[in-house]
Amino acid sequence: MIRRSHAAVGLAATLALGTVSGFAAAGPVPPTPVSGATPTAVSVPVQTTRYAVFDRHGHKSTSTWRTSPAGGNCCETYITATPAGRIVESGGTYPWYTPDQGRHWYEVKFDIPDQNDNGPTLAGGEGATVVGAGGDVYGVTWDAYSGDHLQAYRYKAQTNSWQVADVVMKSPFYDRPWLTYAQGPFTLDGAKTRQLLDSTGGGITKDIDTLSPDGLDYSHPSYFANEEAQSSTANFRVKVARNPDADWWQPHPGTGTLPLTSGGVLRFFNTDDVTGEQPCDIARLDPATSTWQCVKVAGSFQPGIVRQDSRGYLTNVYPVDDDTALAFATSRDGGKHWRTTTLRPPGKKQHLETSSMYDVVANGRLGQAAVSARFDDANSHGQDMVFRVDTKKARPVRLQTYLVGKGDLNTANNVLGSLGDRFDYESVALLPDGNIAVSYDDSTCKQPSTRNPDHHGPQVAILVR
Asked: Cβ–Cβ contacts within 10 Å for residue 173, how many?
């Protein structure tokens, strides 16, 4: 185990915390008052388009998708789904949702200082969302261009209501936030909570998280790399426990986390952004203290994306063969034994646009998983695709490979591509009826900006049939 010097810890904390008033204040920071928000119907273009689909034997046919530029910003579209079938999109400043698979869209606006309508005129804000127990929705949204604001929102499914709160405690320049939901119980600052939300973001470093017991009050900082470095390593076993909420609370891969069906959460392959050190490969959030502790697990995991579905079964997806394919592995005993299949794009040899340009959701009730990925051809044109995988039996089986979009656009994946076309990450959701929602980008996806009226940006595609 690597132990860092106090000087290195202090440097990282200073860079991350800066002079933000919330972190600089003595004692706990009180949350700002909570307000409500009202969804408003928004008229956006909705089209249906047919794209190629290949069955497990390679036979080609077509599938129909409903597409729309709803939500998102210049280069990021983040999709998730609830057990009621609602699709939530929150890649930009405000969360959007559709209750009817993309026929109609609603925008949930709340009080953020005007930023050219907080739309894509400049770039738009950045948001993340995650589904919790019972279909509740939690999110954070960072308004980059009118004062570095961070706001948290929560949707309560039982009352069909939205609440919003300003987040005071945050690192400066909260670039691209990510969010994890974990089932408790946890003890946070001496108080018991049945759940925990973990928010991370920042341009200098993402090493400083803030924790919340309710998805609105993020006033509990956590320096996870430092906590891991100061911990003793414990033995840990991933339990195979059933939990229906686990099909829906799977976070974006950028979190590096695995919410567990038996309660708690793991974090994989963490590296300190400032020092480059890695205290341990796997850590868990200690439920007694809500601090990160290194653990040695009874099983093995490959660097990639790890999910646990409602049956308690594990899915681990990771690039193989020089990023020309993805390995899809499942385990029914907590990671001790794995059965694997390989997912390859159809046709000529292609490469993942970046080694992290894929996403996975696993649904135990359906006995299926969906893997979205963006593969580049020899001319660096990116083709978005979705692999549907059957997980009913011990060995996973690829059922279909859907091509989404025309595959005719060259995109960058970070701020260096801001002057051109950007598509920063993949995002996919598997709906209760088995339909799929996915982000994609091609020459037909228009997101005009003041600098480039022909600018392209990722859109939402929803499988119709």
From this structure: 13
Residue 109 lies in a domain: yes
Tokens of 446: 């228009």
The identity of residue 323, as a single letter, is: D
Q: What is the mean predicted confidence (pLDDT) over 134-149?
A: 85
Q: CB neighbours (10 Å) of residue 59? A: 8
For every residue of 225-251, DSSP letters joined together read: HHHHHTSPPEEE-------GGGGT-PP
Place of tokens 């646009």: 353
Cα-based distances in Å from 155 to 37, 88, 93, 224: 10, 11, 16, 28
Q: What is the pLDDT of residues 354-381, one digit of tens each?
A: 999 999 999 999 999 999 999 999 999 9
- Whether 1 is in a domain gets the answer no
Residue 326 CA to residue 318 CA, distance in Å, equals: 6
Alpha helices in 299-379 (DSSP H): none
Number of domains in the chain: 1
Burial of 77 (0-12, 13-18, 19+ CB in 10 A): buried
Gap between the Cα atoms of 203 and 274, Å rounded: 12
- The 10s digit of each residue's pLDDT in 44-71 is 999 999 999 999 999 999 999 999 998 8
Residue 405 CA from chain centroid, whole number: 21
- What residues make up the domain containing 207? 6-25+35-463
How would DSSP label each residue in 380-427? --EEEEEEEEE-SSSS-EEEEEEEEEEEEE--B-SGGGTTS-B-----
- Omega cis (within 30) before 185: yes
Residue 209 contacts residue 285 (beta carbons within 8 Å)? no
Q: What is the DSSP letter of 278?
A: -
Entry pTM: 0.91
- Categorise residue 273: left if φ over 0, alpha if ψ from -120 to 50, beta otherwise: alpha
What are the tokens at 273? 């952004």
Spatial separation of the C-alpha atoms in residues 308 and 317, rounded to whole Å = 12
**Domain-located, residue 59:** yes
Domain contains 30: no
Strand 47-55 relative to strand 436-440: parallel, antiparallel, unpaired?
unpaired
Residues 6+ apart with CB under 8 A from 254: 176, 178, 425
